[in-house]
């Protein structure tokens, strides 16, 4: 280190050149770093989507989901398997650790799926979901028109809008939601079919045979080759009507003789409503995992502007959810807080140093260190976001430079005639060691953050990485750039201490002298404060993370599981009209059911209502999001049969991705019997609802879906010579579930299906009259071979690691999550008895909180031990290492007091604040003790006794200690006081650091010198005893001669 400082002072030009090179590299990295609102908080995961048309949830579970789950159990590095089985859909999710590459994970899953193919029903195939994450839902929009139908809008979206958006770089997928997908329906008349001795299967087979394109190789004629091309496809509905089905009494029977042809729509599993006025078509752009959100949305907007020009004039594409708005708001918050914090830091520098050049030198370290941090972020793939930059404290960055520049100024003030470079070198070497160990300690306290897993690790690792890069950069600058520039820029006579600081130093010395003569009251008070603070910690509310204000609300809605599409959309629009009446609301869009690409397993009875809000300054009926949610909740209670739960778009997606739960708390009832699980879940729901603070309590609906059940009469089936497959085909054809052929219009493919009229398939009774042709030619009614009855069954079946589970869901309002869950667990333990084979798992935000707390409880003591090791290496003294480490409990006092004063919960953000606080507090102690040790060996101070030496050293270090504490705390003040979007995450961290620095600074300035004096007295007493012993031994030796 001494050689590095010597080199920097004697090769100043080279040092400046290297610094400029780092700045250029940092600016380059800044241009290429991705900008997001947050780091991607969802881990690596692979979704397996399997569409099984016509299958009920029970059959999907047994025939599709379970074989897939079984094949995926034990995939290398997989962290489990969870699934949802619904009507016609199986959705299996396989999470992986963050360090597993997503493409490698997909490869592992695909290999296992290939093995599972043989176990799946014929015609059922699995596909992997998009290479995206829930946070990749960047941009959502609706298509509206005054003149076009939902079918026409859907066609425009699927064949014009969607294909062009999918080609945008960084877009993984564009999902379509709502609208009607066109199909051609041949509606046959059962009476006319029966009169001509035909069945619906005959019509289906005729269409399949008569709608073909074919080829026959080629012909050679006259030295030329001619390709054979057969054109047998139908091109319009008239062609369909002319297809011959059979013959009756010698006359051909065409489709037109036994039915009609209409342009209809595929049965749909989802719909979208807008502002309570109409149904619309919606699209959602999914970002490729790892792509830059800001760049992707910019390109999407540009492409959308081009697409809009190509659409009919009556069609309008309106975005309603755009993540760049959140990115912009959080970026504004970050920049505002950093600029304000930087200005406060610079003001402190001018105030204490009273030297423009010195202050500018230290201030210049801030942007250069930031640019060095950008280099690290670029090299390791971190994005610029609220977490990576939002908790960066400029005071921490300039700590090392403050200590260095203060040492220069003090030397200039007292040694003006000394050789200039030698003076700067001695001043730098004196503080170089404590600076080096101080930065090492700062890095050490952030090590626990790198051990965090799950969402908490993905959230705070970027912050820790950026801080470590910045402080390491500031260390390099403090040891090279600052000495080089200061030795050139600082002038003799400029460095004079401010009169107010001189007076403060004198008063501090007098007070410290008084305290050191009677230290007992101070020490007793300090110990009492520590005991009170630590004791009160258990009374502070706990939670995983504060809720971030995204600027919009997402209301998850539910109705009865048997609700039809028409009633579902009516209820949604009724709720939208109520919400739209609030002046804070810009627009409301509700997405019901699932999209075309089934990345979500919602039923028709479920919906996500996006409530887009005006800026907070324009609100009139509510002062904050909590009040607005309460008002909306109260207003929506008038909608009959509607259950609502309030969250935010990103928050809901993150919760769902992490544990499959969309609420703050989810209790998983895991057991083999679905009905038993539901019964237990209902009992638990009542218990949870009785606990104060519970909100939106419900059991995830798994039962109550309407079914028409057909139980086969096997003896009757055998009597007629029929098979179960014959019955299945007859039912599927009657309902229009089997595609007979396709009508191709350009690149657009329209399915052609055959089905019965609505009246012939309206209920179980009408289906019972459906006829099936037996091998002997007779027509057999369905009622003869099957019992047809209306009943209810599961709407969905959820699995955790291939075990059935039910869910109890609850949000928490007006209370902290930790105490709420503790009370819930206590009441369940008291009032609920679980049968054998059934157990509970606790998920949602609570699961994240417990995991993070457990990890921090394990690694923070290890970090403190590491700090102790560094202190011992610095001082070569266990007692002095423990002395400096005593700053930690005193820093706790202020941090805990700040949580009480500001009425904040103890969450992960506050915990990270405590970790950062420990480093800064210890750093101040290192600076003080190192200087006191230096004075012990200084030739000029050998005549001073312990008290005078401590008073001198403490007075010398008053300025750097106060500067360090002030710049560190004031750098966090804008974050602590900010109410801008994104500040919710920063506020607990900043408040803890500010409060802790107040008490730890008092310790450094008063308690630490007292304890240091006590240790020095003991050391000198030991030395005196040893000296006396040696003298006594020498006098006792006889003189011979």
UniProtKB/TrEMBL annotation:
It comes from the Bacteria. Its main location: membrane. Keywords: Cell membrane, Membrane, Transmembrane, Transmembrane helix, Transport. The chain crosses the membrane at residues 12-30, 334-353, 360-380, 386-409, 430-451, 463-482, 522-540, 856-875, 882-902, 908-929, 958-977, 989-1015. It holds the Pfam family ACR_tran. Signal peptide: none annotated. InterPro entries: AcrB_DN_DC_subdom, Acrflvin-R, CusA-like. GO terms for cellular component: plasma membrane. It is found in: Cell membrane. Gene3D superfamilies: Multidrug efflux transporter AcrB pore domain, Multidrug efflux transporter AcrB pore domain like, Multidrug efflux transporter AcrB TolC docking domain, DN and DC subdomains, Multidrug efflux transporter AcrB transmembrane domain. It is a multi-pass membrane protein. GO terms for molecular function: monoatomic cation transmembrane transporter activity; xenobiotic transmembrane transporter activity. PANTHER family: CATION EFFLUX SYSTEM (ACRB_ACRD_ACRF FAMILY), PTHR32063. Belongs to the resistance-nodulation-cell division (RND) (TC 2.A.6) family. This is Efflux RND transporter permease subunit.
